[in-house]
């Protein structure tokens, strides 16, 4: 990104007046390109979206998407401290409303991309593999572990073979000791990828487990070894990756699993509901 900004600084005096306005906005707020839609950024600059496309073309890019990708890659590579610092600087210069707007745009964009790219045949294949497995272990570490616990909590109502190894004690690997050939690991891992989750998945694969992988890139660790790969974007102006699209993917997968399961799953869900009703688990 810095090389592109240096180039932009040099060519700005040669640009048309409208393109110079766009250049100044980007030079002053480079991370906005990564976290704000083209239309919203055009609005801030007081130009039209076609002007943004012309701006990208002028800098040698085929389209605005490829221009924006340079900034997105740079933001994603920043560490937590850099991104937290950027949040404070943005709030001081543009106010909290600007940050909230960018969070909304990135979250909605991540969800839209998931549903645009989703391969329902692959999700259905993942559901069938899970339903046929003797045991299914949800593997996730760090902040993602608690999202995995939601997946486990809901999905086990339909399929009792769902397991969630704990992250305490000797780590995830200890909870995967019972894994056998034919079992499935449902791994959740996103950049920056936790070594604990990846090592645990490698352990299970070495024991003959099958891998269904929810992640953010085809280049993620172990992605090439997955039988089914379900991708979600986690881009966000927040200092930690966004989990909005991850939750959408989980809800989608759970729904497909239940839809493709049989009467046993319905009875299991009914049993959970009955027990919770009798114990006044929910406030009525």
Architecture overview:
The protein has 284 residues and is α/β, with parallel strands linked by helices. The protein is 60% helix and 8% strand. The chain folds into 2 domains: 2-77, Arc Repressor Mutant, subunit A (Orthogonal Bundle); 116-278, Rossmann fold, CATH 3.40.50. The chain contains 14 helices and 5 strands. Strands 2-1-3-4-5 form a 5-stranded parallel β-sheet, sandwiched between helices. Helix 8 packs parallel to helix 13 (244-260). It is elongated, with a radius of gyration of 23 Å.
Strand arrangement in the largest pleated sheet: 2-1-3-4-5
CATH architecture of the largest domain: 3-Layer(aba) Sandwich
Portion in beta strands: 5-15%
Sketch the topology as an H/E string, one letter per element. HHHHHHHHHEHEHEHEEHH
Main sheet makeup: 5 strands, parallel
Q: What is the overall shape? A: elongated
- CATH H-level homologous superfamily name of the largest domain: Glucose-6-phosphate isomerase like protein, domain 1
Strand segment count: 5
Show unreliable segments. none
Mean pLDDT metric: 87
Number of helices: 14
* CATH class designation of the largest domain: Alpha Beta
Distance between the termini: 54 Å
- The number of domains: 2
Q: Which class do the helix and strand fractions yield?
A: alpha/beta
Helix content: 55-70%
CATH topology of the largest domain: Rossmann fold
Question: Top keywords for this entry?
Answer:
single chain, 284 residues, alpha/beta, Arc Repressor Mutant, subunit A, Rossmann fold, 2 domains, 60% helix
């Amino acid at each position: 990104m810095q090389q592109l900004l240096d180039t932009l600084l040099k060519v700005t005096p040669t640009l048309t007046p409208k393109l110079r306005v766009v250049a100044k906005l980007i030079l002053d707020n480079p991370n906005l390109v990564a976290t704000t839609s083209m239309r919203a950024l055009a609005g801030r600059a007081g130009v039209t979206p076609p002007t943004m496309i012309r701006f990208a073309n002028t800098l040698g890019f085929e389209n605005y998407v490829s221009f924006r990708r340079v900034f997105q890659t740079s933001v994603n590579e920043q560490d937590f401290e850099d991104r937290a610092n950027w949040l404070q600087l943005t709030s001081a210069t543009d106010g909290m409303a600007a940050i909230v707007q960018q969070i909304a745009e990135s979250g909605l964009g991540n969800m839209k991309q998931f549903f645009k790219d989703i391969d329902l045949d692959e999700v259905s294949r993942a559901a069938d593999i899970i339903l046929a497995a003797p045991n299914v272990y949800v593997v996730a570490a760090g902040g993602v572990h608690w999202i995995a616990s939601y997946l486990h909590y809901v999905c086990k109502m339909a399929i009792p073979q769902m397991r969630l190894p704990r992250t305490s004690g000797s780590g995830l690997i200890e909870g995967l000791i019972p894994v056998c050939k034919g079992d499935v690991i449902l791994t959740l891992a996103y950049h920056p990828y936790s070594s604990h989750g990846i090592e645990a998945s490698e352990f299970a694969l070495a024991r003959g487990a099958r891998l269904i992988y929810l992640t953010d890139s085809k280049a993620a660790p172990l992605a090439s070894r997955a039988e089914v790969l379900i991708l979600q974007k986690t881009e966000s102006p927040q200092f930690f990756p966004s989990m909005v699209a991850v939750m959408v993917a989980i809800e989608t997968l759970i729904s497909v699993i239940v839809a493709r399961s049989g009467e046993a799953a319905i009875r299991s869900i009914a049993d959970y509901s009955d027990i919770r009703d009798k114990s006044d688990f929910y406030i009525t």
